[in-house]
From TrEMBL:
Designated name of the protein: RNA polymerase sigma factor
Species name: Lysobacter koreensis
Similarity section: Belongs to the sigma-70 factor family. ECF subfamily.
InterPro entries (UniProt xref): RNA_pol_sigma-70-like, RNA_pol_sigma-70_dom, RNA_pol_sigma70_r2, RNA_pol_sigma70_r4_t2, RNA_pol_sigma_r2, RNA_pol_sigma_r3/r4-like, WH-like_DNA-bd_sf
Keywords: Sigma factor, Transcription, Transcription regulation
A Pfam cross-reference name: Sigma70_r4_2
Residue span, RNA polymerase sigma-70 region domain: 37-111
Transmembrane regions: none
């Protein structure tokens, strides 16, 4: 459970209602059904992967495209395993696969010493909200790109996708304290970067 002062998660781009008839056709191996699912979820999966892996540079886009392909291949292979038990939506199941694929690549970077997180200052739990939705999208994207991918992924999973710290910790194979510290540090750093842009604009 999030603390009461925490911001409400944004509506995820994955929240697409998929008709049972389409899922039944996909389980039956109909190519047209698979193509329809791919078209519906192509953009949200790619966007999620890009937010987790990087700020939109060429290599990040290539990796995000790989995550999209790997995610949809797994969805197609495992679609028979999805039965919507306890009312769970199909998009939630698919989103979990996409998150796992993206974080698996992030963990690979960490193993090879290619990724670091913000760890250069003491932290206190920070419940300040993310930048307002009215903030300039391009400025926000540039600011996010300056954060380490691990930190940026925690911010995105918590604020945009609505994951709890416990869920993020499990996904990233880290501690709950790590998730909380990255959210606090990343949020402060992000707001600082946006303030710098604002000041330079009005200078």
């Amino acid at each position: 459970m999030h603390a009461p002062a925490a911001p409400a998660p944004l509506r995820t781009g994955f929240a697409i209602d998929v008709p049972d008839s389409l899922l039944a056709s996909a389980r039956g191996g109909e190519r047209a059904a698979f193509e329809q699912l791919y078209r519906w979820f192509e953009r949200p999966v790619y966007t999620l992967a890009l937010r987790i892996l990087g700020g939109g540079h060429g290599g990040d886009r290539d990796e995000a495209a790989d995550v999209l392909q790997d995610t949809m291949l797994k969805v197609f292979r495992r679609i028979g395993d999805f039965h919507g038990s306890q009312g769970a939506p199909f998009w939630g199941w698919l989103r979990q696969i996409a998150v796992n694929e993206a974080l698996m690549r992030l963990r690979s970077r960490r193993r090879h010493g290619l990724e670091v997180a913000l760890d250069d200052e003491p932290w206190l739990e920070d419940h300040a909200p993310p930048p307002p939705a009215a903030a300039d999208a391009a400025q926000l994207q540039r600011a996010l790109a300056q954060l380490p991918a691990t930190t940026r992924s925690v911010l995105w999973l918590y604020h945009a996708e609505g994951y709890t710290h416990e869920e993020i910790a499990a996904l990233m194979q880290r501690s709950t304290s790590f998730s909380k510290s990255q959210l606090a540090r990343g949020g402060r750093r992000l707001r600082g970067l946006l303030d710098e842009v604002k000041e330079s604009t009005h200078a």
